[in-house]
Amino acid sequence: MIGPQASKVLLGNWTGHSTVPSHSLYPHQWSWDSAFIAIGLRHLSARRAQVELESLLGSQWADGRIPHISFSPSVARDAYFPGPDFWQATTRGGVETSGIVQPPVHALAVWLTHQADEQESVRRNFLARVYPKLVAWHAYLRNHRDLGGHGLVAIVHPWESGMDNSPAWDDALARVEPAPLDSFTRRDTDHASDDDRPTDLDYGRYVQLAATYRDHRYDDATTPFAFALEDPCFNALLIASEHALASIASALSLDPSPHLSAAEALSKSLSTLFTDGIFRARDLKTSELVAADTISGLVPLLVPGLAEAAELLETARGPRFRLGEVRMVPSYDLTGPAFEPGRYWRGPSWFNTAWLIHRGLSALNQDALAGGLRSDVLELAAGTDFAEYVDPFTGEARGARDFSWTAALALDLERT
């Protein structure tokens, strides 16, 4: 039973209104982390899971975006970089945040949290209070971030993908002149091995992209984006969350059809990213699909009614990812030229993407593969002290320990 250990991690990382991913490496509230965390918290306390999501939505901007970090005023301002002084973004409610976003898994997390204790959800009027915020969030993405005109949402920073250091971003990042190394001080390498983290060169590029967006007041219409890509995972999660919004609307006796229509349109557009048995990101600066095959291209397995599901499943089981043969699901093509088994998103297997793939496999009635992946997640979570990610061949722990979404999603797989 993993429950007691997972519960200890989640309780230890709870701040009173939200859960930090890691007290050392990530001491604030992160957007998609909180969504994944709520999915696990719902088994311990549906009310606490609701509060987790409500806390995150409390940092929503007037334009509807949910920023990728909500900064805690109780944490030293220089404990994390880039911190609030760098981003210079404050909501009308006085919450200091970052200016970029992360993948939209929130509506799915809200729906699963509601289902965990419908009576408590209704008593607290949970769905009715968060539904308009989620609608505004999705509207921001569809109305402001269809930068390519393809009906897909574009990310404008690697951090927005949640898969910061993925090889899928290498060519686009190479066009970015990095911020000088003496202009900022990294904090992540204070708590994690340099070998596990992005290089200084890449980090300088991340900083420059964020600074340019900030200096243009986070205006999507006027910022000269040097980095803009349509990411399969981001859009697949938007589709899944539109389906969740349809369920939420129905529960509130509202019309679900706008959400189902949005999901259908996004699914058709997503198909334009499919090639060679996998979904690949489109670089909007070149209009070409990137060559790198990553876990992002497998996440669409969870999209309901996906036309490419059978071929995508074959790729997942093939030599590029070896699903069922290696530990969980590697974040990058095992045969790819940029593969590194221990470096951030360049090969290691992650628990959140394993959870997403498991959800897709279950929906496709791939019971043997889903069961094997579930067992692997539970074994690795317990055996690595809830590591942030692991080596896909050895299962060796990498990154932070006592990582919140690892504990949360392992708990969810054990309980469901």
TrEMBL record:
Pfam families: MGH1-like_GH. SUPFAM superfamilies: Six-hairpin glycosidases. Signal peptide: none annotated. GO terms for molecular function: hydrolase activity, acting on glycosyl bonds. Keywords: Glycosidase, Hydrolase. It comes from the Bacteria. Residues 26-406 form the Mannosylglycerate hydrolase MGH1-like glycoside hydrolase domain. Belongs to the glycosyl hydrolase 63 family. This is Trehalase family glycosidase.
